[in-house]
Amino acid sequence: MSEPVDRARAALVAAPVDLLVGRVATLLEREYGSTDIELFQVDYRLAALIPLGGGEEVRAPGHPAWRCFDHQSPVYADGTGYLPVSMRGERRGVLRVARVADEGQLAGLSEIATALAHELAAVDPGTDVYRVARRSRRLTLAAEVQWELLPGRSRSRPSFSLAGQLEPAYAVRGDSFDWSDDGDRVWAATINGMGEGVTASMLTTLATCALRNARRAGISLADQAALADQAIYDLHGGEQYVATLLLELNLRSGLLTAVDAGSPRLVLLRRGEVSVQRLEEQFPLGMFEGTHYREQHIRLEPHDRLFMISDGVLEATGQNVRYGETALDRMLRRTTPMSPLDAVRSILGDLRAFVAGDLTDDAVVVCLDWFGPQADQKLRPA
């Protein structure tokens, strides 16, 4: 690692939470002679790159900043460098650095942009500076609750890649997702609390926290569902409930365990072919007291792709026509060469185009790729 990168890391660690980009700019001007440093954060909808310092949003797909964000690689254009601000698969945005002497400087600048991404993730829970700046409009209160609850929007390591997205991004109500991994397994869930507005978001919050609490106790997927079911029933007595799809993937073997508690659709994309996985439909969480949940198992092959898709996708309506299975299957096939984040972004972008605006119902799409046992498993003890 070069000395400028080391100094940038030290400057970022020492910087006040609101001055991360300013301290990077000072160092880049001193070390590289670069000027006009700006952080463009991707907005909640994945549709705009918004400058932290204010100014015009970048929306044109062919812009160098978007090419950098989409391909996750540095772009050099007209003496300006665009560097991905990403960490562990979570794409936060793009760092623009003007007056870059040549493309040979991009490698060191990329390391600094990655260090910035790590520091942004570290300070984000304690400041509103970066959250506020990445909004192209105000979030509803229900949406604020939902976004605060998410584990992130994308995640990757050698054995898997994972991404999810909510719509309508600035007004989502009850649909959400959750995930976690420990190097041997990855868990994923889609969670849809019934109702509207804050009522739905609070129900989803209870379900998410109950599922996390059960998962962290180290119990089986079926028992996780049962404990969350009981927590919701104890509070609401069956009057409110949550449709949930729970998955647990063994990253060594590819064995997928699933519990379908009222969630509509799990789709497998294998070698370009789409197949809906028929799961046993069980009661939503909290509908009845003492529900017993059963697990199902599916054997994945390396490079399989899974989609978890809420009913708001299929039931979206434009000009009195439902989006439906045909349009969804077509879009799923088109995502084959895309990363999971680009896949969910494309599906929901197509959905917005279909309805010609914001969705009237919530929609959530989660995409999970399993690449097979990789280095991160081989280095762990059996």
From TrEMBL:
<dbReference type="Pfam" id="PF07228">
    <property type="entry name" value="SpoIIE"/>
</dbReference>
<dbReference type="InterPro" id="IPR036457">
    <property type="entry name" value="PPM-type-like_dom_sf"/>
</dbReference>
<keyword id="KW-0378">Hydrolase</keyword>
<dbReference type="InterPro" id="IPR001932">
    <property type="entry name" value="PPM-type_phosphatase-like_dom"/>
</dbReference>
<dbReference type="InterPro" id="IPR052016">
    <property type="entry name" value="Bact_Sigma-Reg"/>
</dbReference>
<feature type="domain" description="PPM-type phosphatase">
    <location>
        <begin position="157"/>
        <end position="370"/>
    </location>
</feature>
<dbReference type="GO" id="GO:0016791">
    <property type="term" value="F:phosphatase activity"/>
</dbReference>
<protein>
    <submittedName>
        <fullName>Phosphatase</fullName>
    </submittedName>
</protein>
